[in-house]
Amino acid sequence: MNLHVQRTLVFEIRLCMTQIQRNAKLCDAGSERNYGQKGLIYSKKENRIMKAAKPRNPWSRKGDFGHLLVIGGNEYYTGAPYLVGMAALRAGCDLVTVAAPERAADIIASYSPDIITHPLRGLWLKPVNVPEIMEIVKGKTAVTIGNGLGKERGTLEATAQIINKLEIPCVIDGDAIDRMRGRLENTIITPHAGEFERLTGVKVASMSERKSAAQAAAKELGCVILLKGHVDVVTDGKRTALNKTGNVCMTKGGTGDVLAGVTGALLCQGFALFEAARRAAYVTGKAGDIAARKRKASLLATDVIECLHRAL
Predict the structure, then answer these.
(1) Phi and psi at residue 258, in whole multiples of 5°?
(2) Least crowded by CB within 10 Å, which of 21, 122, 300, 304?
């Protein structure tokens, strides 16, 4: 028997979840009072707050979503500022310039054509580089500083000088945290527990200690603190948010650099300090969770960067 097909019919069945989506969407970070089981919030309002991407005008052009300056790197640590820059670009920042000592800048330039590099004289940051850096800062939207800088002679002094001169939003991470003194308005600090202890002299262990110590430090310093850990604490001294995205596979070197880059990118896109920090914690951890499903203990910081588009 010969069959002649004259017409093909395709039937599509859609499962309607509209009512569920309208009433309750899930996210993994929010204010203390709304924190629920496993870190999930069943709140339409909080879900809107956690959206990490702003609507874009169809007539937008290059630069409308910010230009981040990354100050970091030395003769040994070339990867850290690169990871910051690539994470920032993947998180929606339009342009990234990395200002780094010559060897680091040249290597970073070879990694990717997407990053602008500005080589600084010497193998590590020194006070003599500060005037040049302050010229580079002009026209930038925000700064991240500290990733891969090291603690060579003169580096910490130069770092402190730069931070004191900045007039645009700044993310302070890594080695730069050790030089923080006095008030730090317009700044987000992203320490882990060890860096937090060196900064404040307070050793934190329990969750309640982490929250109270971070709140007190943020209030005293006049900045936003993103205290990294199994549960991130984000606070400006008045408001406090907790984040439970992220996983144990993110202990790999470089994941903190990714967080710094995402934070800087959100500052470049116009988010206020507290909101940029809480969104960055959520998005970076979520990207790490997505990457860990496939990579598990083989996860690298670059894997987290490659999953940012899915987390945003």
Answers:
(1) -60, -45
(2) 21
